[in-house]
Structures are given as structure tokens and as C-alpha cells.
Amino acid sequence: MQAPSVGGVMLPRGNGATVRLSRGASLMDFAEKINANPAALVSVMFNLGEMVTATQSVSDATLEMLAQEMGFILEIVSRDDEDRELLESFDIDFGADEGDEDELMPRPPVVTVMGHVDHGKTRLLDAIRKTNVVAGEAGGITQHIGAYQVTATVNDEERPITFLDTPGHEAFSAMRARGAKSTDIAILVVAANDGVMPQTVEALNHAKAAGVPIVVAVNKIDTEGADPVKVRGQLTEFGLVAEEYGGDTMFVDISARQGLNIDQLLEAVVLTADASLNLVANPEQDAQGIAIEAHLDKGRGAMATVLVQRGTLRVGDSIAVGDAHGRVRAMLDENGNNVAEAGPSRPVLLLGLTSVPRAGDSFIVVDDDRTARQIAEKRSARDRNAMFAKRPMRVSLENLDQAIAAGDIQQLNLIVKGDVSGSVEALEDALVKLDVGNEVELRILHRGVGAITESDVDLAMGSDAIIIGFNVRAEGRARTAADKEGVDVRYYSVIYQAIEEIEAALKGLLKPEYEEVRLGSAEIREVFRSSKFGNIAGVIVREGLLRRNAKARLIRDGKLITESLTIEGLRRFKDDATEVREGFEAGVTLGSFNDIKVDDVIETYEMREKPRA
Ligand code: GDP
After folding, report:
1. Substitution candidate for ligand 1 out of 118, 125, 253 with most atoms within 8 A of CB
2. Which residue, 489, 494, 546, 559, is most buried by CB atoms nearer than 10 A?
């Protein structure tokens, strides 16, 4: 066996060295990493039966095949790591405060309001905003910019709190799906007349998964039938035990409609933050943070609401937000007033970006416009590549069984969207009645009427869900996002067809059973020693066939020496072979296993899935 060579030129061999490549890299990128001629790699791929050009972005599988052939170990770099490396190349450390501990100053908590639909999240956000209208603010005309800041008086101290203005865990999870941590504390709103409902539990789980402390607002205590005590009891089951019962969760009974106890709720937020979080940031460095909303304004161009997480953002700063960049032309607060600077936990609407970033994108202030542009351009090139490389599917109906077998998922998460609520309900009813067995649980994370939106795709991404569209489709940005992120979106117009397909996929979910199928055996006639490949067995196939990558065991004098080997290398003369049949000679390597002797027998087999009865 020899290293692959092209036109007599030896290619570098990895010998187990690692090559780090980003998803969607080209052979050119690969060649650069290993110091080889890209054209030579094209030939190697050609010999492996794949036609690719040097500059084209290729799939993970192709990179893997090439790496294996050349003796390298491939490491596909995650998006987050890649971004960190990109920023490092500009000497930027994202996500960490600069300087010593004594440069860190307290910062306000950032709060998201979550809970079941109609339990009063929106009303509560309004009530909080109203109790805090700064005198003289012309009737408190506030502008929705995606977040606002208010102050609470705690122990005679004025303490600011930042609220994210998009209620619900969906927005929260959309950001989290994109790797952004926006929220320090969650307010879980539970209507006292309704009690804990499915989305209450969902919200609670989202917050817990993110490690975010929860303050419970028991709302609508003005209504008849309000039972705040019952709510406390119900939430105990989910691990939220009220302080008055010896737990560590603060519960506050409120009425969003009457503006009752809002101050106490704000106080509870501050106290919870003080008790369980150490919220500090360095206000003196270049600003960093995340975009929480963005849109295109006809007159003013791209606008983004950003939350400063550390440092101070100033008008005139050069900034990169995701793959958008620009110079901060102006900043507005939630009252529409111009502000010149914004410190940690401060949300501002900023103008001056060249394009519209996405919610959850990180932002950084850099030294000059050129750096901002370069970072933005590199990011958008990377995203384009990743899209071309067709990311491996997340969970899809086709690969469900593998995902389950690999232990990756134990529940099938679905998002159901339909044209009318009747059909959504009918579909949901039928789906939950499916007999799924007990290895996997079917869960409907979200259902709704209307087209499949970007937020549906984000939710699917964050929780590995499949989206069902019944007479509705994903269009525009939602479709692009689903394609880009590999979210499985299924379209149906007949209910039973949807049910049938999901049931079939679920049947496959039951753990597959495997049986051993014998392939053949070969006798070792000679052992060659190679410094590169270890011991190579010169064999003759006695029965059946040898297949590359098949499993093998070694038998000596009728005794089993070892099992679970793999035929890693298989050659006929100088050529790689995938199979060698009875009566032929071959060269075999068994990976790192080298204890082979003349007259040993190599038995090969495959594990095949047994069809289910
Ligand atoms: P969301 O879906 O959680 O955002 O709920 P909304 O804020 O839209 O509130 C749903 C309904 O409950 C609206 O009709 C509100 O006026 C009403 N509501 C909200 N808070 C209260 C409250 O404290 N008391 C009463 N009686 N009704 C409330």
C-alpha cells in the first residue's frame, strides 16, 4: 500500500494528524491546510468516484472521505468556534469582559416574561412600562423597540431592570437556538383563575434548560375564582417551591389589569438577581452584546435594537452585527429620545447599519469601519458556504430511527401549522392518539393557524422539532432559514396522509434489531510489515467475500483471538478494493490491530437490521 499519488507526485499523508475545516469548506481550503496542490486533491476525489471542483463547497461526507483517504482526522469546526476564531484573528475576545475584577461594575438584570397564552404577559409588560413613566414624558408615549428599562426602588435604592418586550419563550428560545444568551431572569406569568397550563410548563422548562432563575407572577388575582394558593401547589410539582413554603422561588400575586403589586414584582426580580446571580460587566471597554430585533425602515434604512452586554456603545462607533456592519449614526431609547451612549444591559435602537441583522446575532464594536466590514463579510461568506454544503439534517422523518438508536432523541417534537384552526386541531388530536410505544414520546411543541414563520423554524431548531404544514407553506425568510438550518418541513393537504407518514416514521423509531450476517473468511498466507500501516495480512479468500469496512474476527487454531475488528484497508495488488471474492488474494489491514500470524483465519460479517414484523 502506498500513499495516494497523482502524476507521480506524492501527496502529503496525515498519519492521523487532525485537519480543522469549517462546514462547507472546499478542496482548496483543504489543500491549503495540508500544504498540497488543490488539483491533486481533485484527482484523489475523482479516484474515489466523486467529481468535484477545487473551489466548490463540499459536504461533510466528502471532506470526511478525503480526509480518511489521506490519513487525516477531520474535525468540522462548529459555527460558534469558527466565529470565535474569526474574531480572535482580529484580536477580539467575544463574550468575556476585559480587565481585572475591580473593573467590573454591577449591571441591571435582563428579564423575559413567559407563560401560557392569555395569562397576561402582554398586559403585564404594559403595566410595568406604565408604572414607570418618567414624569413629563408626554403621557408616556413609548415606542416599541423590543426592550425597555424601568427602575424599581429596593431598600431606598433605585435599581434599573431591563425588560425584553417580546413576551413568550419562543423569542427567548429563538435566541438561544442561535447561541445567544439574552436573559438573566424569567418572570413566569400564571393566571390565578386558570392555573398551570401546558405552555406554563413549556416556558418553565425552557427557562430551566437555559439555567435562568424564575420569579412567578400569579396574575389576575382580581378575577372571581382566582386561587393563587392552588398555583403555588401546582408549581411545586415542577420544582418551583415558594419561599413561604420553604423553597427559594419568589411568588408575587398581581393584577396586570389593575396595576396591583407591580412594584413588589419588580422588587422580587431585583432580590432574586441579588441572591442568585452576580451580574457585573466592564463598562469601560468597546461594547459587545446582541441584537434583539431588527427591521428595515423605509426612510431610515436598517434598524436594529441591540442589548449592550458589556462596554459602552457610542454614536460614531464602528460596529459589526452578525453579517451586517456600519457606523452608529444615532441611537434612540424606548421613548424615542436620542442617546449618545449606552452601557451594560441598556437596550437601544441603532441606526447606521448597511443591512438588517437577525435577532440573536452578536454585535461588537471594533477599531475602524474596515475591520467591521471584514468581519461582516467573512461571516456572510461562511454562512453562504454552510448553506451550499447542505448541512446534515437535524431530525427528519427519514432519519428519526437513527436519531433514536443513537440515543439523540427520546421524543419526537412537532410543530403543527394549518390553514384553519379546525384542521390543526383535528391533526393534533389524531397525532396525540397515535400509539407510539414507550421508547419515544410524541410532543406537540407549538400549533397555530397561518403560514410557517421564521419563529416556527427557530423553535424547531432549538428543540430539534419537525414542522408540519397543513395546507400552509413556509415562504420567504422562513423557507430560507429552514433550508439553511436543515429543519425538516413537511407539507400535507390530507390529514390521514400526514398521520400515516408520521406513524410509519415512529414505527421505525422502535429500536432496530440487528442480526449478524456472515460474509466470508480468508486465510493469512503471509504477513508484511509496514512502518506506515503496521502489519498487512496477505490473504486468500477461502469462502464468500471480504468487504472493506466490514466487521471481522480473528481465529487462530480454531480459537477466537479477538472480535470486533474492522477491515480498514483492502487491496488487490496496488489498488484499493471494496470487495474481494472467493479464490482471490488480497492485502488486508485491521486498523491498529497487529497481532496476526500466518495461518490465522479472518472471518468477516456485517450487522444487518432485522425487518420488523
Ligand atoms: P398574553 O397572551 O399572555 O400576552 O395575555 P394578554 O396580556 O394578551 O392578556 C390576555 C387577556 O387577559 C386580556 O384580555 C387581558 O386584558 C386579560 N388580563 C391580563 N391581565 C389581567 C388581570 O390581571 N386581570 C384580569 N381580570 N384580566 C387580565
Report:
1. 118
2. 546
Instruction: Supply the pTM of this predicted model.
Output: 0.60
- Longest Cα–Cα distance in the chain: 96
CA 302 to ligand 1 center in whole angstroms: 33
CA of 124 to the centre of ligand 1 (A): 8
| 169 ligand 1 Cβ < 6 A | no
The verdict on the CB of residue 120 being under 6 Å from ligand 1 is yes
Residue 610 C-alpha cell reads as 432485522
* Ligand 1 pocket check for 256: Cβ under 6 Å: yes
Q: Report, as an integer, the average pLDDT of 195-210.
A: 85
Q: Ligand 1 mean position to 194 CA, how many Å?
A: 12
Q: Does any ligand 1 atom lie closer than 6 A to the CB of residue 122?
A: yes
Look at 82-86, 163-167, 436-440, 486-490 and tell me which has the smallest mean pLDDT: 436-440
Query: Which CATH number goes with the domain that contains 469?
Result: 3.40.50.10050
- Do both 572 and 528 map to the same domain? yes
pLDDT tens per residue across span 115-169: 998 999 999 999 998 876 554 344 444 667 889 999 998 999 999 999 998 777 7
Same domain, residue pair 363 and 426: no
- Model pLDDT, residue 264: 95
Helix ranges restricted to H, 35-178: 38-47, 60-70, 79-88, 121-131, 169-177
Residue 99 lies in a domain: no
Task: Kindly give the distance from the C-alpha atom of residue 121 to the centroid of ligand 1, in angstroms, as a whole number.
Answer: 7
CB burial class (10 A; 0-12, 13-18, 19+) of residue 11? buried
Distance 118 CA to ligand 1 centre (A): 6
- 95 belongs to a structural domain: no
Sheet-wide strand order for 441-449:
441-449, 411-418, 465-470, 489-492
Query: For 45-103, what is each residue's pLDDT tens digit?
Result: 888 877 788 877 788 888 888 999 888 999 888 777 778 888 888 888 887 888 888 89
Q: Which atom of ligand 1 is nearest to the CA of 116?
A: 3
